[in-house]
Design brief:
The complex is a heterodimer of chains A (415) and B (402).
Chain A lengths: L2 H24 L9 H10 L2 H5 L2 H8 L2 E5 L12 H7 L5 E5 L6 H8 L10 E5 L12 H6 L3 H10 L4 H13 L7 H10 L6 H21 L8 H8 L8 H15 L9 H8 L20 H14 L3 E6 L4 H7 L3 H16 L6 E3 L18 H16 L16 H4 L4
Parallel strand pairs in A: 1-2, 1-3, 3-4, 4-5
Chain B lengths: L9 H19 L5 H16 L4 H27 L3 H24 L12 H17 L7 H8 L13 H9 L4 H44 L4 H31 L17 H5 L4 H21 L6 H20 L3 H26 L8 H23 L1 H11 L1
Helix pairs in contact in B: 2-3, 3-4, 3-5, 4-5, 8-9, 9-14, 11-12, 12-13, 13-14
Classes of the chains: A mainly alpha (415), B mainly alpha (402).
């Protein structure tokens, strides 16, 4: 066999593979415009590739989709969930669910970098979980699960060494300690150190962004969670016309029917799979929990800064905790009140005035679907704030951002 | 400056492909370009030990100077005389840096020693092997340049496979025929692509996608649960495919450079007993321990007639070997228990093999017993990896904190 034939046999497949991959990633051909049905599917899916992605979100926000930022409560899709209500009663908006178990302020801040200007001067809903505000903020593993590489690159291309950008870069370095560094990591280091990027870095980042955008367009809509059938099923549980009292009764009945295997008003499935094996260990366990001193307050400030930058009018929702559960685990309600005051101060003093504070509703039966997640009647209560906020004209917010909220002093302030 | 760890991302592989191209062409013309090989080795070392890891780079340079000085010193001594105590002392001095690196985290609560660097164990193994072979008289000449090439061979520097000096130098100086080189090249490329499958698909699936969820569930349940069993298997699969994938990259890259670095794995989960397992798992390490610790200890005991029973000698050898291996992995209870577990397993295995030999007539041997043996060995090994993973330790602390 000649040398060339052997070389061809050895490297032929390698060259083919390289051409296919590179062609895929760098070719000028882009998939068609993202279809309505894909957007709808993505809006309900809570899939990490949508959350981390850019193309679908931007397409959705050009339409009538409103971002619902949150975490695990968003996946409690019962009949009164915002997505079901919006569809059933033909609201002028549709929720785009952004967040799932494990997402917190800092993850939200990063995924927001993928928005572009589609949300400028529009509205959003943000569900703040008190449970995020533990001492160290987000768990590093949870953060890295949503590691926002494309967003970091977009952000770097615009980032000046301001207080908020330096804070964001420092948090990134702390949450994702690197074993090795590429140009992206080196650029983050420069921002954290208060320096500007070099021209080489900018050129390199532009190239990387091109490739990542393409990757996002190609792959971010593949194998999404399909929740459309579930939403349709839930719609059937609702009456034809919207009537709050009637819906509240339905919420009560649904709640009662689904919480039969425990005495804490917790959804049967959640109890059976998540709590039953461990609940004995959890008695009195949260006695010393505190959500007052936390780095999360500054992470949250990053999100607020982002809202202010894009002039987005936001409704914040602070959900309660199932009171029966709180009593069982010993969680202090006065601490929750302190948390409320602290977060409310951070919001109001900077001009974020739309706050739906539900923390006193944890006593109402079937307000929560389980321990800390809104459900049936809780979702309906949320709708009393969401619907008017999104469907009626609101005055333009005036934000006065304050870098004090990035300080250790604020993070550790007793309230 | 940027820093890249070996075989970590596509960029690293593209760099390898580009920089090895001249070596491939030269070899096809049956030529060696030593200066170029040295140059790119230096470049890759700089990439892995520069940037944020510069302090490791300094540690590596100081370490190599120190060790080479020691080898040279012993080589000169050995040319004149051969005192056993001087030999023991030399080996001990050679492993002092490794001992410091391994002991520091145990004393200072996980803190990493400043004299440590990625791959210090593997270089130390190579050095100790060299010293022992100098004592045996097997290494007859000391060449500084080739010793440095051997110790700092970049494809295997971070995690092996552990090569032997004489074998390496033989390959390094030998010019392959075009046909022989083409065979090597073909295997090298194939190994690297098999490595992609192992490390970036299978190990990713087990380690990155499955493991965190299984771990979380096992921690939530606490104690012995089905999730813990699942963790045991998932961890074992991740460990094998990750390390075997890495080893394939190292071997493949070596082959392309014309160096036949020894293989590290040979279908270890097909082993029918623990002894066979160690002939198939992390082979370059287990053969190193066999040749330089087990054999030498057994030989020493027999020569000095310390113990009569051959069985006792063998068992003592296993115990020593696996205890040292346990301590080498790190000074924590679970690595040491892992070592003891394997020592016991192999002692039991030996006893069983002797029993089987004596009662050959009564004990059936067929396809089913063979399948059962593989099944039993696989599960024993997976259990040992559960100990090794340190997950039981995490679980205990998790429980105490609750």
């Amino acid at each position: 066999m000649s040398v060339f034939k052997r070389l061809f046999l050895i490297f032929g497949p390698v060259v083919c593979a390289a051409i296919i991959v590179l062609g895929f990633l760098f070719s000028p051909f882009r998939p068609d415009k993202i279809s309505q049905s894909t957007i709808q599917k993505a809006a309900l899916s809570q899939s990490p590739q949508v959350f981390k992605g850019m193309a679908v979100k931007r397409a959705a926000f050009r339409e009538n989709y409103v971002p619902f930022f949150g975490s695990s409560e968003l996946s409690r899709i019962d009949a009164l969930h915002p997505s079901v209500l919006a569809q059933k009663y033909h609201r002028s908006y549709r929720p785009f669910l952004l967040g799932t178990a494990g997402t917190q302020s800092i993850t939200q801040f990063w995924q927001m970098q993928g928005f572009g200007n589609e949300l400028n001067n529009k509205k959003a809903v943000f569900i703040v979980s008190p449970q995020w505000f533990v001492k160290g903020g987000i768990d590093a593993a949870a953060f890295n699960y949503f590691y926002p590489r494309p967003e970091i690159v977009s952000w770097l291309l615009k980032a000046k060494p301001t207080t908020e950008n330096r804070y964001a870069a420092e948090r990134l370095l702390a949450l994702n300690p690197k074993d090795s560094t590429d140009e992206i990591d080196d650029s983050v280091l420069r921002i954290a150190a208060g320096q500007r990027l070099t021209n080489f870095q900018k050129t390199y980042l532009h190239l990387v962004k091109n490739e990542l955008d393409h990757e996002d367009q190609l792959f971010s809509t593949i194998s999404l969670n399909n929740r459309e059938a579930l939403i349709k099923k839930r719609e059937k549980e609702l009456p034809k016309d919207y009537n709050e009292a009637k819906l509240d009764k339905i919420g009560y009945e649904l709640g009662k029917a689904n919480t039969t295997n425990n005495s804490l008003d917790i959804d049967n499935n959640f109890w059976k799979h998540k709590l039953k094996p461990v609940y004995k260990k959890l008695a009195g366990e949260q006695k010393n929990f505190s959500y007052i001193k936390s780095v999360e307050y500054s992470d949250f400030q990053l999100v607020l800064n982002e809202f202010a930058k894009h002039h987005i009018n936001v409704l914040f929702i602070i959900p309660p905790i199932n009171e029966k559960w709180a009593n069982y685990t010993g969680l202090s309600m006065s601490m929750i009140q302190d948390f409320n005051n602290k977060i409310t101060y951070q919001l109001k003093s900077q001009g974020f005035t739309h706050i739906a504070n539900l923390t006193n509703d944890g006593t109402k039966p079937y307000f929560m679907q389980d321990t800390i997640h809104l459900g049936w009647r809780g979702w309906l209560a949320v709708d009393q704030y969401v619907n008017p906020f999104l469907t009626k004209k609101q005055t333009k917010p005036q934000y006065k951002m304050n870098n004090y909220f990035y300080t250790k002093k604020w993070q550790n302030l007793d309230y | 400056m940027i820093n890249m760890q070996p075989y970590q991302n596509p960029t690293y592989f593209m760099l390898i492909a580009l920089t090895l191209l001249p070596i491939v062409i030269a070899n096809l013309y049956e030529k060696k370009i030593y200066w170029y090989q040295t140059l790119i080795s230096f470049g890759f070392l700089l990439l892995s030990f520069g940037g944020i890891k510069w302090h490791q780079g300094i540690a590596l340079i100081v370490y190599v100077i120190f060790e080479i000085f020691l080898i040279k010193l012993y080589f000169n001594y050995r040319a004149k005389s051969n005192n056993s105590w001087i030999f023991y002392l030399t080996v001990f001095v050679a492993i002092i840096p490794l001992i410091i690196v391994k002991v520091t985290p145990a004393i200072y609560g996980g803190q990493v020693s400043i004299i440590g660097f990625l791959g210090i164990s593997y270089i130390t193994f190579k050095i100790v092997g060299m010293i022992m072979e100098i004592r045996d008289g097997a290494i007859k000449e000391f060449r500084l340049g080739q010793t440095i090439q051997f110790l700092l061979f970049f494809p295997t520097i971070s995690s092996g496979p552990i090569d032997r000096y004489r074998r390496f130098v033989g390959d390094y100086n030998n010019q392959l025929s075009r046909k022989k080189y083409l065979d090597l090249l073909e295997k090298g490329v194939w190994y690297i692509f098999l490595g992609f499958l192992y490390k970036f698909f299978i190990a990713y699936f087990f380690g990155t996608l499955l493991m965190p969820q299984v771990a979380q569930n096992a921690l939530a349940r606490g104690g012995i649960s089905w999730w813990l069993v699942a963790y045991m298997y998932v961890y074992s699969m991740d460990l094998f495919f990750d390390f075997a994938g890495y080893s394939l990259f190292a071997v493949g890259t070596s082959y392309i450079m014309g160096i036949v670095t020894p293989m590290n794995f040979n279908r270890p989960f097909a082993a029918a007993n623990i002894k066979e397992f160690w002939n198939r798992w992390h082979m370059s390490l287990s053969f190193w321990f066999r040749d330089y610790i087990y054999m030498r200890l057994v030989f020493f005991i027999m020569k000095n007639k310390l113990i009569k029973s051959r069985i006792t000698i063998a068992n003592l050898g296993y115990l020593t070997l696996f205890l040292i291996m346990g301590f080498w992995h790190g000074i924590t209870w679970y690595y040491i228990v892992y070592g003891l577990f394997h020592a016991c397993a192999i002692i039991v295995c030996d006893a069983w093999l002797r029993f089987k030999k004596k009662h050959r007539q009564q004990i059936p041997s067929n396809r089913f017993t063979k399948a059962f043996a593989i099944f039993l060995t696989f599960n024993t090994v997976c259990f040992s990896f559960l100990i090794f993973s340190g997950f039981l330790n995490t679980m205990m602390f998790h429980h105490i904190m609750k």
